[in-house]
Specification:
heterodimer, A: mainly alpha, about 0% strand, flat, B: 6-stranded mixed beta sheet, 3-stranded antiparallel beta sheet, 7 helices, globular
């Protein structure tokens, strides 16, 4: 009697269970993709058969053709460009400043005592509520819009970066010092990597809030941008354009978060779940 | 004590301030570490043994008294909770001390690799600490200390967070590594077995305020193995230490 290892009942069972696991994964993926497609189809069907008001709930096919028109005549690309510019400039300036200030506040007790309560109080004021004041000071230009985006990014990152530094295990600081990392080297080799996870949490939150703020700003104080496109479509009663604007804003959010996630994986390879056992 | 000391703590006193009132943690402690010797420091919990180790290592300052080094003594630590950098790979964690000391990349990776192999972590160079088991992390933390070629190795309950089997394995590893390298070592531990098995000498501390209550030489030849733990001389010394500690623990219970 020959017993082949690969054909033993145990191995067959192992193969079967691996196959089952793979099948389940594929099924989950398929369900995730299929559900929105089915919902879109139902929407399309319902509005083209007048089950729901097609004037308000524009069928997906019409939204799609409106999007093509808006891209061809340059309206959508122009609005997308200007919104992205406001968003990115504000986010980068405010975010960078927030990280720098937050880390400094995390390190220096005196600075923290002086500024942390003030910043916490200012953060409690919704940034969008300050927009009218900024409009008074700077007039209707790009500056107040970029400043509101920058302000929200600043506060979120300042708070998270400071918390990041403060949450570093004191044992790691001690180990760093014991192995010769002092001053600038302690900063770059222990404080910065140690606070990165909190900084990235801040970046994710700030990106979402910045998108809200830029859209709201464009509702009231702009005649360009995706927020303006949505607002203006309401005033002209053009729901199909409104949908195009909303979907584009959502896409901007997805792409921005995706970029942040990619960078996070690149610079924090250790924080990915390990495949160990 | 011996003349050839490498590091000497003289009348070290430490006062901590908690909630506005001072607590006397150490009172006029004297401890010499002879060059190339292995000293185990044992005492009831809260007696200040870790504080003494940190003061000797220079990461805490004494309130009174002094710590002298014979010449320039390089110090390395092994911490209880490993204190590994989660953002660095196994290789970079081991190489950290060398990097801070300005050793160039090729050289520090070569030297780190040797120690990675010595502690049995070969094949895990690119892994991050969160992918390692508790025992592997502690070996990594030992390699990180040894690779800097310290004159003095300070270990603060390095096996405290490990299960019994892993603890025995690491103790054997440490015995072997120490007998190969003969560093000057101070080991803080709460295990009497560990203190005797590894040490040339066991210093027993009193309850708080901590003082050195007894200095006992370990009468066992080297190289040692885990089997030394059944040696009658081992058992006799263990009994003596147990008596010392028992009095201290009872007294510290009553004073609470």
């Amino acid at each position: 009697m020959t017993t082949s290892v690969s054909n033993s009942p145990i191995n067959q069972e192992l193969d079967r269970s691996a196959l089952r696991a793979r099948r389940l994964r594929h099924r989950d993926l398929a369900l995730g993709v299929a559900t929105p497609i089915v919902l879109l189809l139902i929407w399309q069907l319902a509005s083209s058969t007048n089950l729901i008001d097609a004037k308000i709930f524009t069928p997906p096919s019409t939204i799609f053709s409106t999007a093509i028109t808006l891209i061809k005549n340059g309206v959508l690309t122009h609005d997308l460009g200007i919104t992205s510019l406001r968003l990115i400039v504000g986010f980068v300036i405010g975010g960078a400043l927030g990280i720098a200030v937050g880390i400094a506040l995390g390190i220096f007790r005196t600075l923290r005592a002086a500024f942390s309560p003030l910043f916490a109080a200012l953060y409690a004021v919704p940034q969008i509520a300050v927009l009218p004041l900024l409009l008074v000071i700077f007039g209707i230009g790009e500056t107040p819009k970029i400043l509101t985006v920058a302000a929200v990014s600043f506060f979120v990152l300042e708070i998270n970066a400071m918390a990041g530094v403060r949450s570093i295990d004191p044992q790691l600081l001690e180990a760093g010092r014991a192995y010769g990392a002092k001053g600038r080297r302690l900063f770059w080799h222990v404080l910065v990597p140690g606070s990165l996870p909190a900084v990235f949490t801040g970046l994710r939150v700030a990106a979402a809030l910045a998108l809200v703020v830029v859209t709201a700003t464009e509702f009231v104080a702009a005649n360009s941008g995706l927020g303006y496109l949505v607002w203006n479509s309401w005033q002209l009663f053009e729901p199909n354009q409104m949908y195009v604007g909303l979907i584009t804003i959502a896409l901007v959010g997805v792409i921005l978060t995706g970029i942040i996630e990619l960078i996070a994986r690149k610079v924090m390879p250790w924080s990915r779940r390990s495949s160990h056992d | 004590m011996g003349e050839d000391w490498l590091i000497r703590a003289s009348t070290v006193t430490k006062v901590f301030t908690t909630n506005g009132h001072g607590v006397l943690a150490l009172e006029e402690v004297n401890l010499d570490l002879a060059r190339g010797s292995f000293t185990s420091l044992i005492g009831p919990s809260g007696c200040g043994k870790s504080t003494l180790l940190r003061i000797i290592g220079g990461i805490e300052t004494p309130s009174q008294g002094s710590v002298e080094h014979a010449g320039s003594a390089r110090i390395a630590f092994v911490f209880q909770d490993h204190a590994l950098f989660p953002w660095l790979t196994v290789l970079d964690n081991v190489a950290f001390g060398l990097k801070m000391a300005g050793v160039e990349t090729g050289e520090r990776n070569r030297r780190s690799q040797i120690w990675i192999e010595r502690v049995g972590l070969a094949g895990f160079e690119k892994a991050f600490p969160n992918a390692l088991s508790g025992g592997m992390r502690q070996r990594l933390s030992i390699a990180r200390a040894f690779v800097t070629e310290p004159d003095i190795l300070l270990m603060d309950e390095p096996m405290g967070a490990l299960d019994e089997q892993t603890r025995l394995l690491i103790q054997e590893d440490l015995l072997r590594l120490w007998e190969e390298t003969r560093k000057t070592v101070l080991l803080v531990t709460h295990s009497i077995d560990e203190a005797i098995l590894l040490g040339d000498r066991v210093a027993v501390m009193s309850r708080r305020p901590g003082r050195i209550k007894a200095n006992l030489d370990v009468p066992l030849e080297r190289p040692r193995t885990l089997h030394n733990m059944t040696d009658p001389r081992f058992v006799a010394l263990k009994d003596a230490i147990l008596n010392d500690l028992h009095d201290e623990v009872m007294a510290s219970m009553e004073s609470r």
